[in-house]
Amino acid sequence: MKYLRFFFLLIAFYSCTTPKNKISYTILSGTIKAPTSDSLYLYSHLNELERIITLDKEHHFRDTITGLEGYYYLIQNKRKAVEIFLKPAFDLDLVYDPEMTENVTFKGKGAVENNYLRSKVKIEQKLIQSLNQEEEREEKVVRLSNALENGHISHLNGVKDNIDKDFEYLETQRIDLSKRLRLASFKKKAMSKSNLAISDSFSDPFEGVGRLLENEKLLLLPNYLPYIVSNYIAQHYKCCYKGGDLYIWYIQTMDSLIQHPKIKDEAIFYWKNIMFPFLADVEEKEGIIKAIQPILSNIEYKQKLEEELKKLKKNRKGAVVEPFELYDENNNLISLQSLRGKLVYIDIWATWCGPCKKQIPHLEQLQKKFEGQDIYFVSISYNDNKKKWKKMVTEENMGGIQLFAPDSEIPFLKNLAINGIPRFVLLDKEGKILEAKAKSPSNPEIIPYLEQYLKREGTKE
């Protein structure tokens, strides 16, 4: 009987201590003032689209989100983003003006954490501006960096009694990493300039990095992988790079220095994603992927790399691109097939993209330079607002062939594996790829570059 009584007490204890109905989702709701579209985009801090949230006719939204925890970015106006922190059981309601993201306000469970993030931005703006202005002097960098760290710690301490403890821990680590990044940035600059010197008392931004390389929780922080990949790994270049393929060296160095399997996977995949937009050579990209594949343990990442290899094969010189049929500003349907017989120089752009718009005057000059020659200049508006696109094309009397892509999922665009815009593509007279990542209109070499291809294509006839 004594043991039976103990058994029932044990059951009662675990019944009381085991959480019931644990909430595994986050509720995100709110109102968008003067929205620029009927959708709200939720991106991870690694710039991956996690969710598209639809607004109703009154510009309200409500969504139940599962499987996400950490720092994310809400985007309505593509020029501005709002950082938010999500965690299961949070029930957030926000009011958001896409043109004035600094004034977003949160209510509900999780509001204290997210309002803290908004006020944190305002606190650091003045100090960061001062820090950038004085970055050539070590004592100023150290002083202002310490002031910024102390300001953030004081701000966090002011709300710590009312915030989630996991969030408090992450923010504490984030403050430390932010200081490390600022010091690492100055150190990197000093090492590359002969007129800058670092004193013996300058703090080592990589002190104790071993414990950081073993802390999986830090992967939730937006500044963790930039610190590890772009700073800690990069600083080994000066001492350890002995020549050969620099990209392969970088992969091997990450493999050697990062022992934690998940952190290694995330670091290598992050590095690949920030490098690829700057690489034009398809075979070079294929070589990098093949070097990465045996190292990764993450099955999902391995599958993504296989898909990327398939897309890259479609971007090789001589590959036939997927045909398209798109409408111009006058609602005429233009097909790629109708452009056969001439070279096709394609500009993939958007009205919201500042770098894209800077290329337009150079593109207009190219069109005049090659007028009457065997080349079409085609501009495809990508991931854009159709009304704004048509207005800009019409009012600014933009030349060439102006087309609008209704979405980024059309096969022609999807197979190009576009990581960023503007993106330029050069096709031959048969619709085959000459350059999947062609030179931009502002490139000083663009005219002889196109003349060379015109001459080469002309000799084939």
State the main characteristics.
461 residues; alpha+beta; seven-stranded mixed sheet; 15 helices; 18% strand
Task: Tell me about this structure.
This protein is an alpha+beta fold. Helix content is 44%, strand content 18%. It contains 15 helices and 15 strands. It has helices spanning 2-17, 111-133, 138-157, 165-192, 209-212, 224-233, 237-240, 246-257, 261-275, 282-292, 299-313, 354-369, 386-395, 411-414, 446-459, and strands at residues 25-32, 39-44, 49-54, 60-66, 70-75, 81-86, 91-96, 105-109, 325-328, 333-335, 343-349, 375-381, 401-404, 423-427, 433-435. It has a seven-stranded mixed beta sheet with strand order 10-9-13-12-11-14-15. A four-stranded mixed beta sheet has the order 4-1-7-8. The radius of gyration is 26 Å and the shape is globular. The model is unreliable at 6-18 (pLDDT under 50). Its main location: other. One of its GO terms (biological process) is cytochrome complex assembly. It holds the Pfam family Redoxin. It is found in: Cell envelope. Residues 295-322 form a coiled coil.
